[in-house]
Amino acid sequence: MEQWFLATLLVFIFMPLIRCSSLDQASLLRSFLANKDYKLNDEWAVSYVDLRTEADDLGSMESDLIKDNLPGQPSEIGFKHYAGYVTVDDFKGRNLFYYFVESALLDPVSKPVVLWLNGGPGCSSLGIGAFVEHGPFGVQSDGSTLYLRRHSWNRVANILYVESPAGVGFSYSKTTSDYNTTGDLRTAQDSYVFLINWFKRFSQFKNNDFYIAGESYAGFYIPELADLIIHNNLHAHSSSKIKLKGVMVGNGMMDLKIDRRGLYLYLWSHALISVGTYKGLAKNCLDFKEKCYVYEDLLAKEIGNINMYNLYSEDCSSIHKHGAIDPCEKNYVNSYLNLPGVQTALHANRTQLPYPWSFCSFGTNSSWRDHPSSMLPFYRRLIAAGVRILVYRYCHFLMMYNLFVTRN
Length: 408
Hints:
This protein is α/β, with parallel strands linked by helices and about 400 residues long. The chain is about 35% helix and about 15% strand. It has a single domain, classed as 3-Layer(aba) Sandwich (Rossmann fold), CATH 3.40.50.1820. Helix 6 packs parallel to helix 13 (about 375-385), helix 7 packs antiparallel against helix 8 (about 275-285) and helix 8 runs antiparallel to helix 9. The protein is globular and about 60 Å long. Residues about 15-25, about 45-50 and about 405-408 have low confidence and may be disordered. One of its GO terms (biological process) is proteolysis.
């Protein structure tokens, strides 16, 4: 699987292509979709505010360099990596944490920069994207030793992992009310300001081709941020323009109704839910009727304790574990990122947050304020702007299976 993703990234970045084809991330997304307290704001798609870049004195490229090895890191890794904070709102004190890995092959300045975003909403790109999925290091079962990942994405590009929005992972705000007022609009705005300030800090990369990639709820984050970049590039000074070339969305949300219909049909066709539950979901949940909660509960009971990321893989609770992928890897990563020595080496948790690092912020998720109901208008604008688009699905991923993508 890692080889396939690496090959896909290589082809997408270096060859012209337009194609359709976590770890509490899945349960968090399911609970989010069942919560009707957030606002479906379709006017968001065509409304913007003028964004100003914020003063950013939290660090420099030199101070963010991880000079000594991370605890348990192999020696002779062959690339530089950086970590630290970037200010996105100086007045309220919102600061986003990032981890940046230079390309391991040839000259990094000649390679594209890829921003990776995980979903949730409220899940960590550092923990899931970097340390579980495709970053340069994985964590051994002892929770303190790293190994080099053979098929890390930084073999073909410079990869930037950002924990967004504030309240996720090590990212924070000095204004605690920010944690209860987060939504798609502010997340996109903060991500844009982050990029402007980050490229100032890493100015040698500002003229590189830039791509945005991610999964799950990042299926909303990515088109929104890309659309905002295109809009602001029209008005920005040349020194602040971002050279966006393409977006890449894996197992991502696209349209609330289409996504739900595809998921329910997939679960029923794989004998994971009964005919009655499928019909009840299709009748009550596509338009968020009140009775939807009853059938969502039935769905959860009928599918039971299975691995939502791979239908045919074991869960971490399984006594016997087989295969190349360890379903308990998230536990090892959680232990590692909570080690004080690791946080110091990553220049993280400098404010001593009153809670441990975790893969996902359920508080951020439950207080989400807004998002559009569909990304299709965003995709139309991206296509019109000449942005290259890759949408891919892993057919055994249960949380967000969209038959619209695979059959159209």
